[in-house]
Design goal:
Layout lengths: L1 H6 L4 E2 H7 L4 H13 L3 E6 L2 E6 L3 H12 L7
Antiparallel strand pairs: 1-3, 2-3
Length: 76
Amino acid sequence: MIATLARAQDEVCVCDFTDALPLEQPTVSHHLKILREAGLVTSVRRGTWAYYRLAADARERIDAALHSIIPTTVLA
């Protein structure tokens, strides 16, 4: 989901995720809610659907988290 949002030019509808993934809408919405609560995605509701996009600082936060787990080393 994060990768899809990172590649998207515009917001992505929950319905797009359910069409692309072998998951039902409640499961997709649950995972997106967790990402929203973590501040990694933002959402807006239009009618019955919610549309998501990557939060402005998400790339930097994800990069920092990955570097803390897998540090980049310079080979001499």
